[in-house]
């Protein structure tokens, strides 16, 4: 699946369908859906709709599921209302980013990133450093730097533990800590 | 002219002429028959009455004042005008239901204008117009506003083609307006100025619903309007109205029966909070509550006093968590209908099960239909919990991502009185997540147990067995919605052959082909309509159907780039008006 977007969160990821199932053989044959699927269709465990018609197709692009026209059957007004609600509350989510040792802080707009990988890459570019791979157990063990953030309660938290959306709504500011200082942040509770 | 026709079109009074019946055996004079029939309101009853004999047909048509047309293309304005001389209220429905989900291209039709032109000629005293899935322009609205001096009530649901300028015309010209109900339409919102177009003399409003419009309205104009309209019983404002503004409105309208709030998020001082609480507790007649955008646990408590009398709570635009919902329903023991977002989770639904024993209808909508967030929603557990506590449940619309056959079987055992069972497992072709089997047994249980079932929507991994069950047991079924289901033509055939009361069948993305389509040749005239899209039907079968059944309109729309032989979207409906004359080029009338 789309590992590169999920920061190896596979273990905690909410999956649809049984583990190990990729595409069942005796699927209901569904008539021509190819035209309907959006260009970024994805072979997801449990997703049988369009994949039935194109059995050999294993496009794995973004984390978004295949969006079939008119499915699920929710009226446009209702769909737009929920999505626009999100947009309203997140207009320009700029947070300060400090890096230990740097002379001045930067600001990033969390809204422009779709997930942790993009954010971390942006931080790496901004500060010319490397952050490394996240793991639930070790945090950013072995990297020179580790990204941390201050949440709504004022606590210093490691970036990557919670789902992206939750992170976005609770992150007040970011702090890039030196790897040596960050040891201890990566320990699971 | 038919000698049995006792009245001419010029006759204006019921009892002007003495009875002149040529049916000597018929004991009742016209006046009596008409008097009796004028007490009939159900259009189904009236249809039955009109079939008894010519006298009754005539008496019925002279006394009918409410017109209900479920498919605007099933009949023409001319035919209607000829038959019914005295219509005061019209309900018109247009596009197929799947147009709500973008399956019908724009400019498909169902334009109301030709109807309005006829109404202006034949029914100048028209008072009410209720449109669903129709297209109407601002010009049509202006025409409506200026052609009917006694016009009172306009209700628009899922319509498109107009803007707030059209509403302005209504507000300006309809001096006796009692109802303006604008719901979920494809409307161009050019601002809230239309509300200010109500004349200062307008005090007749009883229903005002502009909840689905986004622009700010003049609060001053709204407040004055609410103050003047003492008979206002339904008020649903939009998001632009804040909490403290709402409080001011409620102070003037404590008689409200239905309230749709504006935005429910605002920093309030303790006094404002208290005032709001008081305003709500003074609404002793409140039965329905909706709106509540952005409501949080901070402000929900102001509602508690009003919750005691509530029978309908629509929280489907408020992303509440389980705890918030639990507290709210704890104060609402009289709830009959509840609409929520799946953010409330199974825990929230458990609370519903324990707090609302009188619940009859539950709708759970998905807050995140495209799974853009890692959002859990509800599962079979929530539905089960509600079924345990709410034994009177008979209407459900449930969006979820997992379900089991066993759960559904238990649910219908707990609640055997379902009349409407609409289950949407959001992942197409999703099996029972515990057994990995198709969901056939679930829907089998539904149709076997719920003998009063009138509407069914199926989902999940389904074979022909589901449809065999439906054909065998669902003898009262009127509406069936199918998506990504079935294995062969046999499935659809079972339904067509087995469900005597079927009126509306809508199918998408299922492997039903020509044999299935043609097996219903005699059935379709007894139904309102059939929709099939992305199935296996070809043009030749559609042409055959059209040829064999002249009183059916068979319309095909083809997708771009698809094979010439494929009938991608098929819409079949009975009609006494013949093929559409206003079909756009992409609709092929066969």
From TrEMBL, chain A:
Superkingdom of origin: Eukaryota
Keyword Nucleus listed: yes
Signal peptide interval: none
Ranges of residues in domain PB1: 92-184
Transmembrane listed as a keyword: no
Span list, region Disordered: 1-67
Subcellular localization, as worded in the UniProt entry: Nucleus
GO BP term (any one): auxin-activated signaling pathway
Function: Aux/IAA proteins are short-lived transcriptional factors that function as repressors of early auxin response genes at low auxin concentrations.
Protein name: Auxin-responsive protein
Organism field: Forsythia ovata
From TrEMBL, chain B:
Biased composition (Low complexity): 11-25
Region: Disordered, residue numbers: 1-26
Pathway connected to this protein: Protein modification; protein ubiquitination
InterPro entries: COI1_F-box, Leu-rich_rpt, Leu-rich_rpt_Cys-con_subtyp, LRR_dom_sf, Transp_inhibit
Any single GO BP term: auxin-activated signaling pathway
GO molecular function: auxin binding
SUPFAM superfamilies: RNI-like
Domain COI1 F-box: 28-65
Pfam family, one: F-box_5
UniProt KW keywords: Auxin signaling pathway, Developmental protein, Nucleus, Ubl conjugation pathway
Principal subcellular localisation of the protein: nucleus
GO CC terms of this entry: nucleus
Transport inhibitor response domain segment(s): 85-131
Basic and acidic residues composition bias: residue spans: 1-10
Compartment annotation: Nucleus
PANTHER family: F-BOX/TPR REPEAT PROTEIN POF3 (PTHR16134), S-PHASE KINASE-ASSOCIATED PROTEIN 2, ISOFORM A (PTHR16134:SF148)
Name of this protein: Protein AUXIN SIGNALING F-BOX 3
Source organism per UniProt: Forsythia ovata
Lineage of producing organism: Eukaryota, Viridiplantae, Streptophyta, Embryophyta, Tracheophyta
């Amino acid at each position: 699946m789309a590992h590169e977007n999920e920061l190896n969160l596979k273990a905690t990821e909410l999956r649809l369908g049984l583990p190990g199932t990729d595409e069942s053989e005796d699927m209901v044959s569904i008539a021509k859906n190819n035209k309907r699927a959006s260009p970024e269709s994805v072979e997801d465990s449990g997703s049988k709709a369009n994949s039935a018609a194109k059995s050999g197709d294993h496009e794995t692009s973004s984390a978004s599921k295949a969006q079939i026209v008119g499915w699920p059957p929710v009226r446009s007004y209702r769909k737009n209302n929920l999505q626009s609600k999100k947009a309203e509350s997140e207009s320009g989510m700029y947070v300060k980013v400090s890096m230990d040792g740097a002379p001045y802080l930067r600001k990033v707009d969390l809204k422009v990133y779709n997930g942790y990988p993009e954010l971390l890459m942006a931080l790496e570019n901004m500060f010319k450093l490397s952050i490394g791979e996240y793991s639930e157990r070790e945090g950013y063990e072995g990297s020179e730097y580790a990204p941390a953030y201050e949440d709504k309660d004022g606590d210093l938290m490691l970036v990557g533990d919670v789902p992206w959306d939750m992170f976005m709504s609770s992150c007040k500011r970011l702090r890039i800590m030196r790897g040596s200082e960050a040891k201890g942040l990566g320990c699971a509770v | 002219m038919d000698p049995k026709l006792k009245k001419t079109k010029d006759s204006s009074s019921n009892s002007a002429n003495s009875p002149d019946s040529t049916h000597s055996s018929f004991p009742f004079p016209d006046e009596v028959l008409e008097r009796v029939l004028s007490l009939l309101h159900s259009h189904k009853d009236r249809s039955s009455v009109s079939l008894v004999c010519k006298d009754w047909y005539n008496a019925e048509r002279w006394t009918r004042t409410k017109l209900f047309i479920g498919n605007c293309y099933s009949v023409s304005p001319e035919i209607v005008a000829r038959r019914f001389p005295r219509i005061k209220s019209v309900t018109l429905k247009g596009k197929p239901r799947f147009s709500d989900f973008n399956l019908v291209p724009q400019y498909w039709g169902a334009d109301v204008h030709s109807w309005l032109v006829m109404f202006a000629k034949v029914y100048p005293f028209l008072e009410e117009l209720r449109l669903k899935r129709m297209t109407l322009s601002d010009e049509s609205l202006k025409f409506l506003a200026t052609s009917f001096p006694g016009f009172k009530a306009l209700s628009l649901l899922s319509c498109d083609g107009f803007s707030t300028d059209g509403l302005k015309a209504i507000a300006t010209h309809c001096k006796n307006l009692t109802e303006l109900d604008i719901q979920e339409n494809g409307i161009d919102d050019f601002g809230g100025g239309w509300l200010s177009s109500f004349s200062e003399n307008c005090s007749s409003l009883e229903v005002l619903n502009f909840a689905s419009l986004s622009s700010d309205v003049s609060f001053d104009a709204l407040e004055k309007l609410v103050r003047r309209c003492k008979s206002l019983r339904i008020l649903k404002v939009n998001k632009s109205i804040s909490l403290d503004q709402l409080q001011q409105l409620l102070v003037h309208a404590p008689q409200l029966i239905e309230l749709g709030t504006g935005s429910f998020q605002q920093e309030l001082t303790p006094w404002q909070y208290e005032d709001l609480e008081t305003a709500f507790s003074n609404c002793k007649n409140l039965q329905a509550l909706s709106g509540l955008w952005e409501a949080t646990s901070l402000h929900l408590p102001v509602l508690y006093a009003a919750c005691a009398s509530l029978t309908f709570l629509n929280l489907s635009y408020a992303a509440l968590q389980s705890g918030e919902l639990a507290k709210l329903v704890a104060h609402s023991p009289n709830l009959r209908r509840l609409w929520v977002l799946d953010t409330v989770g199974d825990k929230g639904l458990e609370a519903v099960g324990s707090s609302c024993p009188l619940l009859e209808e539950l709708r759970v909508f998905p807050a995140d239909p495209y799974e853009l967030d890692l959002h859990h929603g509800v599962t079979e557990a929530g539905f089960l919990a509600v079924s345990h506590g709410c034994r009177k449940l008979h209407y459900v619309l449930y969006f979820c991502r997992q379900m089991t056959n066993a759960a559904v079987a238990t649910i219908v055992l707990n609640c055997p009185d379902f009349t409407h069972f609409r289950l949407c497992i959001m992942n197409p072709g999703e099996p029972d997540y515990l057994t990995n089997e198709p969901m056939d047994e679930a829907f089998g249980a539904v149709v076997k147990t719920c003998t009063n079932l009138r509407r069914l929507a199926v989902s999940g991994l389904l074979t022909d067995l589901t449809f065999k069950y439906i054909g065998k047991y669902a003898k009262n079924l009127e509406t069936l919605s199918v998506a990504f289901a079935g294995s062969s033509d046999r499935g659809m055939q079972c339904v067509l052959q087995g469900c005597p009361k079927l009126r509306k069948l809508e199918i998408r993305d299922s492997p039903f082909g020509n044999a299935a389509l043609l097996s219903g040749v005699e059935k379709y005239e007894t139904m309102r309509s059939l929709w099939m899209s992305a199935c296996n039907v070809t043009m030749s079968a559609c042409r055959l159907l059209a040829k064999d059944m002249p009183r059916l309109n068979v319309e095909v729309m083809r997708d771009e780039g698809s094979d010439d032989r494929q009938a991608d979207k098929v819409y079949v409906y009975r009609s006494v008006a013949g093929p559409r004359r206003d079909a756009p080029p992409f609709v092929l009338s066969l």
